[in-house]
């Protein structure tokens, strides 16, 4: 089991309270009327599946029920940062690869660690 920090409740809670809702920061076509079938297809169906840093949307289903974003390493399962919808992560591929350096330190004290 691991723990996730909800940026709205400002509490570190069990993973069982949360659900992953897939990739974060999916951009809807800016002009829907003019979007091609290919653009709609990309928006609706295609998602990144990286090895390493990935931004995901999660929901605190058994808590405040709010959606928020998680920067997670898909190899180690380490959660590097959680942040509110509308915000951007401070974690980059470079900082994620180097683990607990720089801004990532700040995130670790409130993030989940596998037990
Ligand atoms: Zn919450």
From TrEMBL:
Bias (Basic and acidic residues) ranges: 98-108
GO molecular function, one term: sarcosine oxidase activity
Record GO biological process: tetrahydrofolate metabolic process
Span list, region Disordered: 96-115
NCBIfam families, sorted: soxD
Protein name: Sarcosine oxidase subunit delta
């Amino acid at each position: 089991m691991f723990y996730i920090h909800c940026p709205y409740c400002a509490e570190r809670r069990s993973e069982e309270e949360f659900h992953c809702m897939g990739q974060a920061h999916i951009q809807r076509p800016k002009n829907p009327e003019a979007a091609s079938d290919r653009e709609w297809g990309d928006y609706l169906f295609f998602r990144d599946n990286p090895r390493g840093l990935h931004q995901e949307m999660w929901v605190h289903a058994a808590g405040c029920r709010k959606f928020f974003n998680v920067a997670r390493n898909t190899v180690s399962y380490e959660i590097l940062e959680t942040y509110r919808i509308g915000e951007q992560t401070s974690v980059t591929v470079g900082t994620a690869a180097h683990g607990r350096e720089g801004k990532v330190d700040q995130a670790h004290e409130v993030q989940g660690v596998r037990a």
